[in-house]
Amino acid sequence: MYNPRSPKAEEFIDHQEILDTLAYADANCGNAALIDAILDKAEQRKGLTHREASVLLACRLEDRNQRLYALAKQIKADFYGDRIVMFAPLYLSNYCVNGCLYCPYHKKNTHIPRKKLTQEEIRQEVIALQDMGHKRLALEAGEDPVNNPLEYILESIQTIYSIHHKNGAIRRVNVNIAATTVENYRRLKEAGIGTYILFQETYHKESYEKLHPTGPKSNYAYHTEAHDRAMEAGIDDVGLGVLFGLELYRYEFAGLLMHAEHLEAVYGVGPHTISVPRICPAEDIDPEEFDNGISEDTFAKLVACIRVAVPYTGMIVSTRESPAVRERLLELGVSQLSGGSRTSVGGYTQPEEETAQFDLSDRRTLDEVVRWLMERGKIPSFCTACYREGRTGDRFMALCKSGQINNCCLPNALMTLKEYLLDYASEETRTVGEALIAAQLSNIPREKTRSILLERLSQIEAGNRDFRF
Questions:
Q1: What is the mean pLDDT of residues 323-340?
Q2: Three-class SS string for 363-409?
Q3: pLDDT for the residue 356
Q4: How far are the Cα atoms of 229, 242, 322 from residue 265, in angstroms, in the given order?
Q5: What does DSSP say about strands 314-317 and 336-338: parallel, antiparallel, or unpaired?
Q6: In this structure, are residues 170 and 161 in contact, taking their beta carbons and an 8 Å threshold?
Q7: pTM, rounded to two decimals
């Protein structure tokens, strides 16, 4: 039976509840009165249940769909303004013992060269990322207890935080590694990680087991309950995600929201981020083998529905997607983007596409992405202040829901953008950015905050770094 408070994966992600939800959504896809009531509730900015949101996703009334898109855009603006958080992935190793059928790192792939970075190679990769201007990384590694033990991950985190090159520093390391134990999550917490990210890939248990025939990841329950163990260990910022294209998208959507509801019900705080990758080409992987791909229009509606369902949660779209798709999704709820990414091991110093986890659709440099965002009125943010000020988990969500977080976020975004413009930007990008910062000053509501911000911007001009509210 469905129970969002249950510790068991098959009870908080209940198959029959999802089927019943989809049937309910189908039965009401043209029910204007119900859809209006759900949209009215969404306008309260308090979120929707998985069943309510599934009705919106199934909605066939075009005027109501347009209302959904407009609401998603407004909710995004209300909670995140024009800020877009920037990050980059860092691949440590592609050794993996799992048999995931959709990933080129699967154990039976003999075509891909296997590689694991030494600590010195990590140092060089981090310096390359710092020289781009990055401050936030997402650490990636295959699951291999021999080649990639937790001790290796912890040592790598320590190495990353220790590197200060010119004005560069990685201020926050988020971690995307395999499900592990409570004790290991405690060790990651002690290492100072930001968000622990783990994609479910698919919530459909039967499909999950077919797609993961071998390796520790084949244990559906252990994988699905990983975020609970992370939170039990004190990691209060966790990230969810599915790989759209593996299973029917409406099933995954309902499962994703049920997972968010479970975390909220048990821990009082939902996911810090939700990622929405779509399956794409990679070595030894043909996405045409998976027949559940979704169109760009469906993808856009998915993002809009997630935004109105979980208004306080950050949404991430990576360089898997093209610039055009990413631009469209920015208006519907996405709040974080990767830029200048490489998905190969050692790819920032010695690009080797044959070790890439997937093909990139957006190959622009970070400078090009930053300028592109600013030309569209967006504020690229390299801020990591909340992590370092202890504004995580329920403390962050309380500030976000009350709107108080905006007193910090915009000033912090502008200060970190100023650092980027002075230290890393091209002349063209710097010109666009300085004009953007000047225009945004009037959007700081408190005169005292604006006065402090102006003083700190002057100090950044003078060579000082790392201010934060």
A1: 95
A2: CCCHHHHHHHHHHCCCEEECCCHHHHCCCCHHHHHHHHHHCCCHHHH
A3: 66
A4: 15, 21, 36
A5: parallel
A6: yes
A7: 0.93
